[in-house]
Amino acid sequence: MEVRENLIRLCEKINGGHYKITPDCAEYKVFEKWITDEQITVMLALTDMKPAFIPVIARKAKMSMERTKAILHELYDIGLVVQVVVPKVGLEIYLLPPYTPGIFEFLLINEKFCIAHPEIAYAFHQHATTSQIEHAPNTPMGAGIMRVIPVESAIPADAVAIDNEKCSKYIEDNEGHLSVTPCQCRRVRRMMGEGSGDLDEGLCIFMGHVGDMFNRSGKGRPVTVEEAKALVKLCDERGCVHQITTLHQGETFAICNCMPESCLALGVTQYYNTPATSRSNYVAEIDQEKCVACGQCTDRCANNAIQMGQKLCAKTPIVHAHKELPDDIEWTPEHWNPEHRTNREYIAPEGTAPCKTACPAHIAVQGYLKLAAQGRYLEALELIKKENPLPAVCGRICNRKCEDECTRGCIDRAVAIDEVKKFIADRELDRDTRFVPKKLYDYSDKKIAVIGAGPAGLSCAYFLAADNYRVTVFDKNEQPGGMLRYGIPSFRLEKPVLDAEIDVLKELGVIFRCGVEVGKDVTIAELREQGYDAFYLAVGAQKSASLGIPGEELAGVWGGIDFLREVNGGARPAIGKKVVVIGGGNVAMDVARTAVRLGAEVTVAYRRKESDMPADPAEVAEAREEGVQFLFEHKPEKIEGRRGKVAALVCEGDKRVECDAILAAIGQRIELDGLDLGALCCDEKGRVQADSVTYQTAQPDIFVGGDAYTGPKFAIDAIAQGKQAAISIHRYVHPGQSLVIGRDRLSYHAFDKENVDFDSVKRDYDASARQVPDKDPVKASSFKDDRKTFTEEQMKAETARCLGCGASFVDPNKCLGCGVCTTRCKFDAIHLRKRTFDESIDYFDRPKVLPAFMANRQDKIRIRRRKESQNQQ
After folding, report:
1. d(C-alpha 102, C-alpha 145), whole Å
2. Closest residue by Cα to residue 291 from 703, 705, 807, 860
3. Can you tell me the mean pLDDT for 179-200?
């Protein structure tokens, strides 16, 4: 396409000398395909950022008044000029805004125009990246595209001159001139297919003449002061970063409520590692003694300035290096971070608390222990349920990986984390004390079908419903719960506990359609026709694996899972007096203990040594207490029968065990028969194949999790996958959203316990012994759970044993001073401190200020080079 010299001149005029204008630059490309020569002529007749009347513009453009006015209206409608209408007299005044904040944002608010010209979104993105190569490291504080101002609640009470740093000040000053529009940055991301699940709904507040302009054009929604403040509060709750324009000192024409994964202004800071382009006058500081590395601040930090690390004293001292700044160094590509939307690191190099790391859901263990110790039980429950919506269930059946890795175990015994969680989560059993999350979003126009009501399905449904999706859970069983209800005996998980947590989902609006088998009673294709936008396949592995030996077809041979299903469903199978359970895992222990309760003499036959048994040692011990016998190195070869019934199990070496029934608990298999799964594929073991981060299958609208994906694992693994699938489904059902960009990859690693200075730790720790919950005097004939919950006294004694391994750390060179971290912390551990007093640099002063700043920076670079050269000599 031929270069248009008049367009070059216009771009240079708008540009104000900030960027080099070429036919390949974003500032030229944004106009190239659609702007007319007449429109260029009129825009050239405007004076940048200074008001002009139509007669003056017409005279400079050498056009008639009528034609000039018509073209100005075209430009106003498109979004290229600011129109100010003088009250009462209706006189129109026009201004030529800069590229940003200005033309790019105003164009993006005009969605229809941008759909017709998608190159606008790409040009804006290019403007915020490649166009900033020279500009970003040479921008002083207060001269960036936008500037962060803190969450008001985070501003210290003793801070000096803070009026210009409060959202409320700008809102109140512009009463009657406020307009809410969709976010332009989020719109760019969506139009490029690179959204991070952060939608371009009405979150930007324009004000003053610009607010009036959008209200007149219908592109914005007029709001009152109270409505604008309520929006800011909602954005605070969501974790948004507030930013204002910097064109005029003490003024702004917009408050943007941004997310770091979406915002293009924050993107400049992150892309080039140049915090000065957007930082406020504040910096966050963490009180290490109060901090518990719960991670609630790290995942919302606007510039990845906070990381979770180690609090305990180390033999080799841990140093947290601060990020280098461009103040006195040439800022070459090795200092940049173009992949900032995908490579965030939330864990410090040394690693963080082993308990949080080991938990498949990465629950903030140290955090909820401390909240419980302080008697803040509802907040502790809330913190747990950010990752695990079934804490009362898990408090009874979890495999406790957190305890396996607990640092306290290096001294004596691990903290009884699961027992404390159970104490906290028992609040779920009472409707008056349970935690139900507040809905901060409304996606009720989207319908999601969850197939399977086990732990993965319940977890996914919870997190989707918490964002107000319309979620329906389909399950072929009579009641929801999956393996939690039908695979785990009541003496480990009493069903009223499960029902209480399912009630929370119902309170959130989840609909359960039990007794409906998808694939038989209704197909996925039919559900699509009913308006379901996505599907979560969480059918579990609910069939017993075959023994594959002769005699398996005899009466009295049961699959372990099938046996448990019968008993948990209320049946009492006739298994006779002598029963052999084959297997060595937790399911085998559940089967054996269930058979004991049906009056049988039970023997467990395991093919390897006792030390090889995968079952939880505590489960094995309880089985022994209840009279279960164990035979090790007994590998089944065949089953002998008499008159069509089981008579004996024969193992290698002619080891023969007489019995009336055999309960095989050697594994589980996945059954997908009848489901119309489209392009979905399975591996050789029948497990559904899917992306390991997003859980999306080859059939794009079907996501998977739980045992159907991993094979038989633990409930907490399925629960963790359910949350991740909910994140993916949210992104999938909204066009233009990436399933991976801006996503926490959950790359946790624990610190090295070998480097912990335990001598120092032991000088100041609670040496109390681990608390042990009492048991009811219930015999093995009962299906009642005989394990009591900690008393409050026991709970407090146990939480005091926590060593407080982890803490988070702030890199002050990266911190933007937004204060979002302070709103997430439940421990009063993080605060803002005012470290500078820099005002925004007025647009008309920048031609003087910026060259001086650049020259000063070059002087600093030369001085540093000279010092480095001298040090090398």
Report:
1. 10
2. 807
3. 96
State whether residue 283 is helix, strand or coil: strand
Range 27-57 burial, b when 16+ CB lie within 10 A, else e: bbbbbeeebeebbbbbbbbbebbeebebebb
Percentage of residues in the chain having pLDDT higher than 70: 99
What residues have CB less than 8 Å from 290, skipping those under 6 apart?
827, 828, 829
Task: Write out 346-415 in H/E/C secondary structure.
Answer: CECCCCECHHHHHCCCCCCHHHHHHHHHCCCHHHHHHHHHCCCCCHHHHHHHCCCHHHHCCHHHHCCCCC
Q: Is 495 exposed, middle or buried (0-12, 13-18, 19+ CB in 10 A)?
A: middle
For 407, list phi and psi in degrees, rounded to 5.
Answer: -65, -30
| pLDDT > 90 fraction of the chain, expressed in percent and rounded | 92
415: CB partners within 8 A, 6+ apart: 369, 403, 406, 408, 770, 798, 799, 801, 802
Q: Is the dihedral of CA 172, 177, 183, 184 positive or negative?
A: negative
Residue 101 preceded by cis peptide, ω within 30: yes
Residue type at 127? H
**Using H for helix, E for strand and C for coil, what is the string for 456-525?**
HHHHHHHHHHHCCCEEEEEECCCCCCCHHHHCCCCCCCCHHHHHHHHHHHHHCCCEEEECCCECCCECHH
State how far the Cα of 250 lies from the Cα of 422, in Å rounded to an integer. 52
In this prediction, residue 775 has a pLDDT band, given cuts at 50, 70 and 90, of confident
Judge residue 13's burial from the number of C-beta atoms within 10 Å of its C-beta, 0-12 exposed, 13-18 middle, 19 or more buried. middle
Helix (H, G, I), strand (E, B) or coil at 449: strand
Distance of alpha carbon 368 from alpha carbon 355, whole angstroms? 12
Q: State both tokens at 519.
A: 């694939």
Indicate the pTM of the whole model: 0.95
